[in-house]
Amino acid sequence: MRAIGLLLGTLLLLVGCAHTSQFPKNLNEWQDEKRVRLPASGRILFEQNLSRAGSRVGCGRAAREVNVELKRSGTQIPMRSQCDRGGKRLILTSTRYLSPDYYGVKLRKHRGEWFEGRPRLLVEYLNPEFESGDDMKPAGAVALEDAAELSGSVNYSAGDRTDWIAVKGNGELSVIQIEGDPKEFSVALYEGEAGQPAFVGPLKVGKKNTLRLGQNSLIKVQGLRSEAGGEYQMLRSSSSATRRVSVPVIDSYALSGEETLVLFEPLPGLAPGQEISVIGAKSDGKKYRVGTCYVASVEETQATCKLFQAAPKGALWAQLAVKG
Fold first, then answer.
1. Tag placement on the chain: N or C end, fewer CB within 10 Å?
2. What is the per-residue pLDDT for 8?
3. What is the pTM of this model?
């Protein structure tokens, strides 16, 4: 036996049903052979979680209590047993990739006290993108424009595992997973095609997840292992949205009267004559607005502004409202 980490998808169609069906909740109830359709080349798998009793005896011993017969046109197909890395899930899989066709499946033996949960019939496709469009690759990413909304879905079982979405310009992206198991649905945000993603994670179903966008962002949505796939919505806020950028104040000098000259790190897009805010911090750490400061000069390493009041003691920040 060897540990495995597979992308699995639930096999879709039970023959004799006019629509896509869920498999029986309890495979112990199968008295006769059931026929399933494999829509593309892949391996058929049977997955079963072990109970505490099953974990105590070990996955290898528990595997001998399950006999799943897999046949094609009456000819039995060899299967081998495998265990997940934690030894808590048993998987029986066909020893080779199978051609698209109808297959007969029957559960011959099952020692119930060693297993828990619903047994599942799954598939590992040779090409899990066999029904995907051009958007399965970054080069074919769907463009999401300013203040636009996009709806989509991914479904490993249906051969549509991956969607790529391209967003140009700064702003925010709200992503909502409408349905599907969060553990079987992945969203990743990339700044350009190369490098590590800036965000990777499951989403909370029905909750808005907000991502900060760079100049050229790529979003990858992927179904990892899902019975019904996952639907999602994306709403891009306008890149003209205002956000506040703060930098530390380097120093401040009292001028004549109540004026103060404030030195700070240069902010993006800063120009003489602009109004910025000076921010202070109270003893409890809470920040507050000290007042308006008018930019006097902007150099490569520092900028200055005039504050028409005395500057308070303690840490200060210069804050500018920018778009995008």
1. N
2. 37
3. 0.63
